[in-house]
């Protein structure tokens, strides 16, 4: 009999990549999504898996819908990836961010406790919970948390709640403290995709600038396709635990820009960048640098895609998308491209 998994946030980056590996492992995958007038399946379409997922409808902010869903499905595994995940907008939407990221997790855990306590639960925690807290420049599972955004605060609540349900009710509840992970299907509001798409536009003569905030921020960037494998591994262990997932390398936004522009043959990239104060955060996290020794030793997990390869992958994907649109004549005016 097939194992069943429920993925919340199924139409996001991580949900799509996780669904792909679970389907390849023979799971029956349920994907939770809100009921939209015109649902968007761009990410699952991109990975070629939309037809293989059974989509179910619900709302993480509606406790009754989560209770009914779990009572009906009683899945073997739940991966909670649903979130208001854009850090920058969380200052403008703190209530919505809290309702989805914090209360939604409470509703899900309580539903599992009542109707399916044997289900293994994964909570998507985040390196943003650390803020600027570190020891010797690195963050580990033991590093104190010091969240510096409404997003990070909401995630820290759900992180501790997951631990509390594990310790209080002997439920299998694991958290993955994932550092930044990107891919060609990253949302356009994230700086990495904003760069890869902007570089592709400039290379094809469709734009003249990219507007950004702090270029000196440093992050530990990995590939989402690698990181979702770690999520699955966490739920295959005998005992639930919390694991930090990172590459162990840190790079600045300047590094990302330099590699992205160089990949399309542009060396003097600075002239295409405009610093826009609107994109600077009220409280900045300056650097994130994870040490994932525990995951490597206990899960056998190692990242496969290197930083430079990730940047090039994202730029190539955006160039291909734009060329396809240009071929369909969706752009009426195109200047001489930098790349062929």
Automatic annotation (TrEMBL):
One of its GO terms (biological process) is 'de novo' GDP-L-fucose biosynthetic process. The keyword Lyase applies. SUPFAM superfamilies: NAD(P)-binding Rossmann-fold domains (SSF51735). Gene3D superfamilies: NAD(P)-binding Rossmann-like Domain, UDP-galactose 4-epimerase, domain 1. Keywords: Lyase, NADP. Its cofactor is NADP(+). The keyword Oxidoreductase does not apply. Its EC number is 4.2.1.47. Signal peptide: none annotated. It catalyses: GDP-alpha-D-mannose = GDP-4-dehydro-alpha-D-rhamnose + H2O. Pfam families: GDP_Man_Dehyd. GO terms for molecular function: GDP-mannose 4,6-dehydratase activity; NADP+ binding. InterPro entries: GDP_Man_deHydtase, NAD(P)-bd_dom, NAD(P)-bd_dom_sf. Residues 6-314 form the NAD(P)-binding domain. It comes from the Bacteria. Catalyzes the conversion of GDP-D-mannose to GDP-4-dehydro-6-deoxy-D-mannose. Belongs to the NAD(P)-dependent epimerase/dehydratase family. GDP-mannose 4,6-dehydratase subfamily. This is GDP-mannose 4,6-dehydratase. It comes from Candidatus Kerfeldbacteria bacterium RIFCSPHIGHO2_12_FULL_48_17. The gene is gmd.
């Amino acid at each position: 009999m097939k194992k069943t998994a429920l993925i919340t946030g199924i139409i996001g980056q991580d949900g799509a990549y996780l669904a792909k590996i679970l389907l390849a492992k023979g799971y029956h995958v349920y994907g939770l999504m809100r009921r939209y007038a015109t649902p968007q399946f761009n990410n699952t379409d991109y990975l070629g898996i939309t037809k293989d997922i059974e989509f179910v409808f619900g709302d993480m902010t509606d406790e009754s819908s989560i209770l009914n869903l779990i009572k009906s499905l009683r899945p073997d595994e739940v991966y909670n990836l649903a979130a208001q995940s854009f850090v920058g907008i969380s200052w403008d939407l703190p209530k919505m961010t809290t309702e989805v990221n914090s209360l939604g997790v409470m509703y899900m855990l309580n539903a599992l406790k009542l109707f399916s306590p044997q289900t293994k639960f994964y909570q998507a925690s985040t390196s943003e919970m650390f803020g600027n807290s570190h020891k010797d420049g690195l963050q580990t599972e033991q590093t104190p948390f010091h969240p510096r955004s409404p997003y990070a605060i909401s995630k820290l609540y759900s992180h501790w709640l997951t631990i509390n349900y594990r310790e209080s009710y002997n439920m299998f509840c694991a958290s993955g403290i994932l550092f930044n992970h990107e891919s060609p299907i990253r949302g356009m509001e994230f700086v990495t995709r904003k760069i890869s798409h902007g570089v592709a536009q400039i290379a094809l003569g469709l734009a003249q600038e990219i507007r950004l905030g702090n270029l000196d921020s440093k992050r530990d960037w990995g590939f989402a396709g690698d990181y979702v494998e770690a999520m699955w591994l966490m739920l295959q262990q005998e005992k639930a635990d919390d694991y930090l997932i990172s590459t162990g390398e840190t790079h600045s936004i300047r590094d990302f820009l330099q590699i992205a522009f160089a990949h399309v043959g542009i060396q003097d990239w600075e002239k295409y960048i405009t610093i826009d104060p609107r994109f600077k955060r009220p409280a900045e996290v300056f650097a994130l640098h994870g040490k994932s020794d525990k995951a490597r030793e206990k899960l056998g997990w190692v990242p496969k895609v290197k930083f430079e390869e990730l940047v090039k992958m994202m730029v190539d994907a955006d160039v291909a998308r734009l060329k396809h649109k240009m071929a369909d004549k969706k752009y009426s005016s195109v200047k001489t491209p930098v790349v062929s």
